[in-house]
Every structure is written in structure tokens, then in C-alpha cells.
Amino acid sequence: AVEGIDVRRPFPPLRNDLVLRAARGERLERSPVWIMRQAGRYLPEYRSGRAAHDFFTVVRTPALACEVTLQPIRRYPQLDASIIFSDILVVPQALGMEVQMVPGKGPVFPEPLVTPDDLARLAVDVDVDEALAYVMDAITLTRHALDGAVPLYGFAGAPWTLMAYMIEGGGSKTLSKAKRWLYRYPDASHRLLQRITDLCVDFLVAQVKAGAQLLQVFDSWAGELSPAQYQQFALPYATQLAARVRAAVGSDVPLCYFPKGAASALPWLRSSAYDCLQVDWTVTPQDARVLAGPEKTLQGNADPCVLYADEPAIRAVTQTMLEGFGPASRYIANLGHGMYPDHDPEHLGYYLNAVHTLSTEMCRS
Ligand code: CP3
User: In which compartments does the protein localize (predicted)?
Assistant: First the structure.
């Protein structure tokens, strides 16, 4: 189907703008819902289609990335948004670092940054339209292929989270290598964070030009920092990123930010250019609202492990979540983190149905 698409024609009209209306603070007839990692290994169609290709081959081949992005949209008509199939680690790759995706282990950088001298290894004056053209091409193709069914999120990693990966060289329990940089080499840390921020600004703006209708910034390691370190090394770059992207793309494209594990940072984000703040399950919806203030749209937040429960239990958790956030305005339902490979696709369907039926009832009364 993707082969016949003429990417030069105007984009098809959007038929479901619920997520956009939630981001703008308009009154809703039900809560919109989408799921982090809604494309991925828990879907049999992803596992069978992907078997022939490794992860970054899918990411770098627009027709494959488009196909995988559409898989959850085809399976779950309840979804109100799609998110382009890619990875936050394409930005370190654009800076010249090698990243491998090792099955069963996750991302691995064979040559992570060790000392500030290693900053000289990073590419300078990266042209994202060239280095990451494949992401923009995938976005344009997917926006057409969606045929207006739901809007398309683009995304990037937040500067602190990308810095952490570039130094750790992969996942880590303590982030001790990356945090060591913050204490030992604060100036070099700031220089690195600024270079990542500059590239991410260009990248997010390019994604909008290519067709992304919302943007999400993932700060997956925000919760590993002390509040003081977060304020020094994560917050300034995450907010600078939003302000510069906002200045470039205008107010029509909602900007979302996920400071995972760091709900205590929400008050500092009130004055940021972000429209939506994603929260995980470690904070109650009520506390998240108090912390974020009345002006932000909240996104989240059920523990993904809830999907291991049976249908009535999933429904009960969803009910409490919706009541806590208030389903009729400034809320987008999601999970508090991504889908896991051993999730049962049928149970995600229970969650999506519960959001639809319960929030529709609550918005009526
Ligand atoms: O559906 C979607 O959400 C869009 C695609 C998407 C992926 N990664 C695909 C992916 C998105 C938005 C991301 C973001 C991402 N990547 C984050 C931020 C969100 C978060 O999870 O906190 C992070 C930290 C990464 C880095 C990354 N990529 C890790 C840690 C892993 C390994 C995790 C795992 O499940 O093995 C990846 C790989 C990855 N990215 C997969 C997918 C579907 C699994 C790879 C596979 O198919 O084998």
C-alpha cells in the first residue's frame, strides 16, 4: 500500500483531532488515548514482519518504519494518535556515535564518551535534514499512509537522557558514569548538553516540516538526578529545547515532555513552552495536577504491569485513573511507560476499551 503513495500531494484532512483538542485545553466528549511503544515486540505482526530486519534497519527504511507505525493503528481502532517508529538514539548516531541494538539486551554503544577529550569525536555542524533524512521521510510517508485517521507524534530524547546514554554506553542501574561527569566535569557536561540541544531543536523542527502534528520529548533518566542536579543539567536544556522549537513552529503543534520518575519537577515546568506533561505511575493523578498547575495537559499514567491483570482489574485501575485526572479536559490517557514485549495484545485492548467507555460516561455526567 505504501508503494503507491505520492508524498508530494497535500496531507489528507485529519478525521480525529481529540489529542490536539486535549493539548489545547478544549472540552472533550471522552479522553483521547495512545500508548508509548504501541508498536513493538508484544505485537505478533511486528515480530513476524521484523524477523528479517534488524531494529535500526527498520528505523532507517521509511517504508518499514511506516508499516510498523501503522500496525497498532490497524489493530486498535480505539487509538487516538500514532507515534513514528524510530528511536531517541538516532541523535547520538547523527553525532557520529555507533549504536547497536542487541536483542535481549537493548542499546549498546561500543565506544561511549569516557572523558571530555572524547567530545572532539562528535560531529560538528550536523545537518539534520541530511543525517536524519530517513526519519523525516518516514514521517511524511506515514502522515500520508495514516490518511487522516489519527495525528502523528514526532519525538526526540531530552538532552540529559541522551547525554546519559552517550556516556553509559547503554542501560545502567546507577548511571554512575554519566552522573560522575556532572560532578567531575560540569563545564564539559554543559557543553555536551548544549550541543545535543542544538541538534534536537533542528531535528524536532524538521519533523514538524515533514508532517509531525505533535512532538514528545522523552527524559527517561530524569528520575535519577537529585532535584539540584535536575535543575542544573536537565531542566534548562529541556525548557530551552521547547522554547526554541515553539518559536520556530508556532503554537499549532503541541509540545509534550516526559520527565520519567521526576514528578517533583512538574512545578518548574509550569512556565515552560510545553503544553503537555507526561507522568508515570509513581505519582497520583491528583498530585500530578497540583504539581503541574491548571494550565498543562497531563498524559499518563497507569503502571504498564497493570496489563498483566484480568479485564475487571484493568477496568478498575482505569476508573480510578480517569477520576483522578478528570477525563473531560486537559488529559490524554496513556501508560506510565512503554509496552513490554511479554504483554498480551488482548489486554491492551481491555485498557483502551475501558478508557473509551468509562471516560465517555464520565464526560456525559
Ligand atoms: O511505538 C513507539 O513508542 C515509537 C517508537 C519508539 C521506540 N523507542 C521504539 C523501540 C520510541 C518513542 C522510543 C523511544 C525510546 N528509545 C526511549 C524513550 C522512552 C522510554 O522507553 O523511556 C528510550 C529510553 C529509548 C532507547 C531504547 N530503545 C531502549 C532502552 C531500547 C531497549 C528496550 C527494549 O525493549 O529492548 C530500545 C529499543 C526499542 N525502541 C524497541 C522499540 C520497539 C525494541 C527493539 C526491538 O524491537 O527489539
Answer: Cytoplasm
